[in-house]
């Protein structure tokens, strides 16, 4: 131990110790000289030998090497800047993408013991329903009887009309069990969280506000506690205010505007409520273990309550499904993230190939320096060390720059990402990110520094003064690794461009799929009626007035209401019955016996341009009291009346039951892809606007290409009927597509920018090699000219070289692209194995790019003056 | 490259000798070399190239300390003094040397 401290003391007082040693040895020499003895050997060398005992000489040598490397790098700033920027690009792209992976997949969610949080869903396996909300009764039993969870909390989301003294607005509310606050570590900044007694019947009229609601409705009044608000007609007392910028989600896109207690009292009907359950596993209980135990419990529950819950009394395959909360929130992002990470990895490889190439070219021009060093006794190991240190300097600076860029970029990547969960996760710098950047820098050091250094030194004796200076035809031996590098980086970028091209083409194809309705020039909005509209007659009369007023707006061609906007929402999946037939999961052609049913006003089909195929459309005369009718789509006909006329047949949502009349089919309309372009049309069943309707959307067909400008007129039309009615989510179909296609577009844009980067790097690589070879071969070119070659011949020579390189790279890249088709398949749409347009475009692009990259060197070759080049050495 | 001068001894032995000559009191580097030279009846010559590395090693081990003093030629120079730890080391090395030496002698006598 003390030896270690002496060593350290020496390190920190090196200068003094060295002087003392020098003094001792000088004195020694003086004395020896006095006695007439001659001393040989360098004092410096002897002193260095003596110093070695302290074990610190490596630091001096390293510092020396670093100083030297810095000098060398400063001497060729062009090389240094190019190499640093290229590496920064590679490392930055990787670190940025990794920061997404880190946020989405690695870093714990912002909840205590987040790794033990799971979402608990009921399943009805036979009906193909995996995420079914839980009724209150089931939740209470599961919470009471399970032995695997520390705690279970439930939440039910909904939209309500919040009325305060100031204004009335539609809010997103979460009805929760009070323990959710403790479980997710939610602490109000003002007042108290909800507590268990709030869940008791009679005590549930308390409310916790979000910071935003508090500011908007109460002007951030610190005395808000104890004040009353009205939520859907009921009075609630404010007991707390949540912090600003609260990050919270258990599956909802945004944190709620208000929190109210869920009523957990003894309810005559245990099947009310549609709760989402989040639970924390007990410490030491594995997910599989918990699943098994909950299966047993679910089986018991099934026997007691769910045995005949299917639409037609069949066993629905009731069960429970535990999903880790992260999987629930992050969902299917994993594939996209790995795709992007793979692409970024390719960028790093390409960047490394580029820098390695630079190193090789740079190294060849330093042949003489190396030869002299070797002649002076430097070992190859020492040269390798020197080159490695130079490369380490490059990688370190590149890594730092790349990391800084990545930090800035990752924030943007996350903010721009179309994934709601990004807002919950946020970005922070952590050690993992730093370690990743370091690893990326290390990889680039090995690939772009050490590897080329080994290649250079392996050339062995060809490094030397005598072999270099009289080469006229260029250095054939050194060319092979450089060309290999350029070919491989071209191949990698071709593969990347192909992938990006396939995604882009998929996106374009997806946008071109006919949806079955015309989304252009339309405007949509949702309507929330206040609780004062209690009777169906009131509601219907409101909608009819609204339709009239909306139609009166100039530039509105037609207008309709519906309970479901195609593409904008998740399609419904309700089983239906056909008179005189048993229910089956599917009909002909695997068409499921589930329908995306909706109630629409008479003009709905005309407004969205959905064509009538048979029979008649719904009319204003179809209303309560007349014959109940329905219009179905062609898919439903294909599945259940393939060879019959469906007009006049009888159909019904759910199972036949008293009080649910059969609907008579009066018409067939064209298919609509309600779930978006990449899902097959589902059976649709349209019924007349009827009651009670949950929430209703408005669709307007306008005569203008900019429907947004009608929004204010629409708002005032609503306000003239009733100020208390909320109009929300007003958007055009362009907005809706932007949202639904967001993830795909994001993936495509990121991959495309990576592909562009790759192309840029490959072009730089080709340019570097070609221009270097023109330099190397300038004497040969001069000679050719002297023998009668024209400038055109010479530039052709150069261009041909570039074309050969890029063609080989292209072929390899296309092979890689074909191979990666399978990896991509889940992200592709409507693309065959060999997507000709993409491949043709890529081939043309690469050839053009390589010619462009070779253009400058070719021009230089053509303008060579034979006399100067031949005299050059 | 370094070449081994004649009468150079292995560094382990040199350390032992340095410690031994310092037992009678602090000496400067040159005096250490001189003392070894004269005590060995001018057989062993300690060169700078091996003396100073050995001294650094001994300093590192903490067997001697260096202190400033004035030489016989009136020059400021460092004197090396045996520490308690150095004294213990000397004793240990001496007994080890005796043991090995006796063993070698035994082999030489009987073989």
Tell me what the structure shows.
The complex is a heterodimer of chains A (873) and B (111). Chain A has 873 residues and is of the alpha+beta class. Chain A folds into 4 domains: 54 residues, no CATH class; 217 residues, no CATH class; 306 residues, no CATH class; 193 residues, no CATH class. Chain A has 27 helices and 22 strands. Chain A has a 6-stranded mixed beta barrel. In chain A, strands 14-15-20-17-19-18 form a 6-stranded mixed barrel. In chain A, strands 13-21-12-22 form a 4-stranded antiparallel sheet. In chain A, a hairpin with a 4-residue loop joins β1 and β2. In chain A, α5 packs across α13 and α11 runs parallel beside α15. About 2% of the residues of chain A have low confidence. With 111 residues, chain B is an alpha+beta fold. Chain B has one domain: Winged helix-like DNA-binding domain superfamily/Winged helix DNA-binding domain (Arc Repressor Mutant, subunit A, Orthogonal Bundle). Chain B has a 3-stranded antiparallel sheet with strand order 1-3-2. In chain B, α1 packs across α3. The longest helix of chain B has 27 residues. Chain B is globular and about 55 Å long. The N terminus of chain B is likely disordered. Chains A and B meet through α1, α2 and α3 of A and α2, α3 and β3 of B.
